[in-house]
Write a structure and sequence with these properties.
alpha/beta, single chain, about 210 residues, Dihydrofolate Reductase, subunit A, RibDG_C, globular, DHFR-like_dom_sf, 8-stranded mixed β-sheet, 5-amino-6-(5-phosphoribosylamino)uracil reductase activity, Bacterial bifunctional deaminase-reductase C-terminal domain-containing protein, Riboflavin_Biosynth_HTPR
């Protein structure tokens, strides 16, 4: 009988000019629509284990706790998405966080994240997916551990206010498109099989 093998998917939202967020803009740049939110809800029901770094854990666990309060300032859609994260299996990689962790269903791993994920892929089944954690995503991709690279591209350019440039520090990566769809006539899902490459291919001979 073959050993279980988990699939790793990097999952990111991004502006058209490559930022993960922007100062002064609401979540999802205020461009989430009913089709996208319905898809998020369906994705949240799947048996994924979510991976993140310490900074993302601190931010998202705090937001999830705040969203569960009656007096939170989140919209109904944002609140539902954030509170739903509490029930999902999660793994946080950190040498500074200590157990017990306050956010439910969260496992703490203090070992090197790349080697830990390599072992998780070998010993677990199902799908491992990322939440934010841009440096973690970059390290896992560079190590050749990512099976799927999925973006939802929002139709906005935040050249002046954008924060967290996603692709800075990446290696060269060839991408094979395996799925695409449009949400609400404006946001585009793109899912790829990534292959880290040494650089440009040889020039074609005429």
């Amino acid at each position: 009988m073959s050993e279980p093998t988990a699939t790793l998917m990097v999952d990111l939202i991004i502006s058209l000019d490559g930022y993960a967020s922007a100062d002064g803009w609401p979540g999802w740049w205020g461009l989430e629509g009913p089709e996208y939110l319905a898809w998020l809800d369906e994705e949240g029901k799947k048996e994924f284990t979510t991976l993140m770094g310490a900074n993302t854990y601190r931010v998202m666990s705090s937001m999830s706790e705040e969203a569960s309060a009656d007096s939170s300032g989140f919209s109904e859609e944002e609140g539902g998405s954030l509170t739903g994260l509490a029930a999902m299996p999660k793994i946080v990689f950190s040498s500074t966080l200590k157990e017990p962790l306050a956010w439910p269903n969260t496992e703490l791993i203090s070992a090197d994240a790349v080697e830990a994920v390599r072992e998780l892929k070998r010993t677990r089944s199902g799908t491992l997916t990322t939440l934010g954690s841009l440096s973690l995503c970059r390290s896992l991709l560079t190590a050749g551990l990512v099976d799927r690279y999925r973006l939802v591209v929002f139709p906005v350019i935040t050249g002046r206010t954008g924060r967290e440039r996603i692709f800075d520090g990446y290696p060269d990566v060839a991408l094979e498109l395996v799925e695409s769809r449009t949400f609400d006539g404006r946001s585009q899902l793109l899912e790829y099989i990534p292959t880290v490459i040494d650089g440009p291919p040889p020039a074609r001979q005429s």
